[in-house]
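queue> holo job accepted (FE2/S2 (inorganic) cluster)
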Amino acid sequence: MDVKILLGPVERFRAAIPYRIETEAGPVVLVRIGDDFYALEDRCSHQDVPLSEGEVYADAREIECYKHGSTFSLETGEALILPATRPVRTFTVTVEDGQVALALDQGR
Ligand code: FES
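queue> job finished
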């Protein structure tokens, strides 16, 4: 079943700030860059720490784990720098009528 969570108006989200969202599929980190929104599982694949406490690199479209510095692609969830080697799950985010929606069952 396609579960969508409405997160509110686009203006609520500032650029390059990681927002942690608790969902029934677990915590998700939402990032806005320009008009684009990205959502990843909010848990580093190296150890169990939240990616939402790390830094976003807007130009590269990456988020960095604060603990050991691995970066993950916001677009694919791929781990780009060691020590993390495994990707994190991604989720589809849509904007409809100015409202941001997170789809839980349509990870890429
Ligand atoms: S816990 Fe994230 S890189 Fe180690």
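queue> The longest strand covers residues 26-33.
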